[in-house]
Amino acid sequence: MLNYIVLGMLFNGRLTGYDVKKWIENGIGVFYKASYGSIYPTLKLLLDQELVSLCPGDEASPRQKKLYEITPKGREAFLDWLGQPIEAEDSGGRQSHLAKVYFFDVLPEELAMRQLAEYERKNLQYLNRLLALERSFDSPDNHRHHYYKMSTLYYGIGIIRETLRWCRHARMKRPFHELFEGGMAYEADGEPDYPH
User: Fold this and answer.
1) How many domains is the chain partitioned into structurally?
2) Which DSSP category does 70 fall into?
3) Residue 27 pLDDT level (bands cut at 50, 70, 90)
4) Per-residue b/e over 17-54, b at no fewer than 16 CB within 10 Å?
5) Is the separation of the CB atoms in 67 and 90 below 8 Å?
6) How confident is the model at residue 73 (pLDDT cuts 50, 70, 90)?
7) Which of 18, 39, 52, 177 would bridge with 46, disulfide CB 3.0–4.6 Å?
8) pLDDT tens-digit readout, 76-88
9) Domain range enclosing 111
C-alpha cells in the first residue's frame, strides 16, 4: 500500500523522502501512518522498479538531498491501482480504502463515483450480514451475559452505517461539515462521564 501512497504523493511533483513523510503526517496521517524506516525502503524499491527516478541535483553540495519524481511507468502503475475497486479495511486496522479515496481528485469524476458506489454496495452487503447476526443473537440472555461481546457487534454496525452515510455524502458532493450537523453527540474536547 505504501508504494502507491508514495507514488500518489509524487504524482503532483518532486519530493524528498522527508517531504513524503511530512505529506503523509499532514495529509493522510489521520488514517495511515508510515515511518522513515518504511518510506526510504519503499523509495528504493520504487527506484529499482523504475516507477520513480532521482532528479539531478547540485553535485557540489556536500549534503545533497535526494529528490524523487514519478516516471511515466510510475504514473501508469498509480492510475491503474487507483482505478481498481476499493477494498474494505485491512485487518491491521489501517483504513487503506481512505488512502485510495484521498487521491480520487486525479481520477475522472465518473470513475470516482463508480468506485464510491461499488464501495457503498459492498458495505451495504456487510451491514446486512451484521444485522442478520444481530437478529440471531438478539435475546435478553445474550445482552445480559455477553454484553461486551455484543457491544463489538453494535460497534461494527455503527461504523458501517456511518461509512454508508459518508459514501452517499461523498457521491452527492455535499459539504462535509453537514455530516456532523444535528448528529454529533460527543464533542472532540469532551470528557467521557465515567462512573465514580
Assistant:
1) 2
2) E
3) confident
4) bebbbebbeeebeebbebeeeebeebbeebeeeebbbe
5) no
6) very high
7) 52
8) 999 999 999 887 6
9) 107-178
Write 108-112 long-range contacts (CB < 8 A, 24+): 111/83
| 185 in any annotated domain | no
Supply 154's cell numbers: 453494535
Give the pTM: 0.77
What's the Rg (C-alpha) of the chain?
21
Within a domain: residue 100?
no
How far apart (Å, rounded) are the C-alpha atoms in residues 143 and 138?
A: 7
- Please state the three-class secondary structure of 89-137 as a single string: CCCCCCCHHHHHHHCHHHCCHHHHHHHHHHHHHHHHHHHHHHHHHHHHH
Give 26-69 as a 3 state SS string.
HCHHHCCCCCHHHHHHHHHHHHHCCCEEECCCCCCCCCCCCCEE
Beta carbons of 160 and 127 less than 8 angstroms apart: yes
Q: Residue 178 and residue 181: Cα distance in Å, rounded?
A: 5
Find cell 549534503 and name the residue: 63
